[in-house]
Amino acid sequence: MEHKQLKIVKGEFVRTESGFRHWVTPDGKAGPTGDAGFAAEAGRYHLYVSYACPWAHRTLIFRALKGLQAVISVSVVHPLMPEESWVFAGARFGDYPGATEDHVNHAAYLYENYRLADPDFNALVTVPVLWDKQRKTIVNNESADIIRMLNSAFDDHTDIDDDYYPAELREEIDRINKTVYDNVNNGVYRCGFARSQQAYDRAYERLFSTLDELEQTLASRRYLLGEKITEADWRLFTTLVRFDAVYYNHFKTNKKRLVDYPKLWAYTRELYQLPGIAD
Fold first, then answer.
1. Cα–Cα–Cα angle for 80, 67, 114, rounded to 5 degrees
2. What CA–CA distances, in Å, run from 250 to 12, 158, 199?
3. What values do phi and psi take at 202, rounded to 5?
4. Least C-beta-crowded within 10 Å: which of 3, 169, 186, 252?
5. Is the pTM value of this prediction over 0.85?
6. What is the pLDDT at residue 143?
7. What is the pLDDT of residues 131-157, one digit of tens each?
8. Could you give all domains of the chain from N- to C-terminal order, each with its CATH number?
9. What is the sign of the dihedral through the CA atoms of 132, 20, 37 and 61?
């Protein structure tokens, strides 16, 4: 498979759109995008993830929060990605703690599953992937969509009814998500993958300006929207929990460490200690 390079426009990293956007729904009706026919059923769906990836980490968190471990199975790729695509344990790099084989399709490389879903696929191979074992295809490879499916579509298959995207807070959650995505989740990558000083400076300023604002928000609130944990908190968490270990040095986001933000640091530690998160 031809290796697809990261998209750089005027020196700035631009994240590509996810190509598979179907939705699992309780009754199999069409969701906000894509086709109908993906009903929520125990044992039908499978997640492909990398523990190194913050976007995939979101989906593992929601699978744990909603108690769906017995409903949706998982395969974990090797944390190192060669040019071809993510690779499973036993292929290319051999075994690695936590990495697994492909439990469903027995592929060596994740791109093989993309090609099963679309023989003409020739774009970036990304995680997470939500796979339909019944139809033998990719349902969705956009983490923002997948966590919303896990939040509500499988409620008939779990005893946990916590809702992290409640109707009365959706407008505010969406607003915070956009700011955090643009400036923090994707902002660290815009710093790390910048190919011009101007692009790096823009991303760097937006990142730390937003972190400063979030620090102020958490000075008067326990969570981003008050006393209730929402989707917005978990979307921020997967970047924060990697900040000092990964982004500070490797992505040159070195103005401050997370530990230099007392409120954000305490907030991240609290979320990390909730049941199922450290797993």
1. 40
2. 17, 39, 17
3. -60, -50
4. 3
5. yes
6. 98
7. 999 999 999 999 999 999 999 999 999
8. 7-157 (3.40.30.10), 167-272 (1.20.1050.10)
9. positive
Distance CA 59, CA 140 (A): 12
N residues, the chain? 279
Which residues are designated catalytic? 53, 189
Q: How far apart are CA 35 and CA 21, in angstroms?
A: 8
Residue 93 tokens, joined: 């790099």
pLDDT per position as a tens digit, 68-93: 999 999 999 999 888 878 999 987 77
pLDDT band at 279 (very low <50, low <70, confident <90, very high): confident
* Nearest Cα to Cα of residue 140 among 150, 14, 200, 6: 150
- Report the percent of the chain where pLDDT is more than 90: 87
Q: Are 252 and 259 in contact (CB under 8 A)?
A: no
Handedness of CA 276, 136, 80, 6 (dihedral sign): negative
- In the structure encoding, which two tokens stand for residue 84, read together? 């071809």
Cα gap 133→192, rounded to integer Å: 36
Burial class (CB in 10 A: 0-12, 13-18, 19+), 263: middle
Residue 10 has pLDDT above 80, yes or no: no
Could you identify the residue written with the tokens 């505010």? 172
> Is 51 strand, coil or helix?
coil
Mean pLDDT, the chain, integer: 94
Enumerate the H helices of the chain as residue ranges. Answer: 54-65, 110-117, 143-152, 170-180, 187-192, 197-217, 231-242, 248-250, 262-272
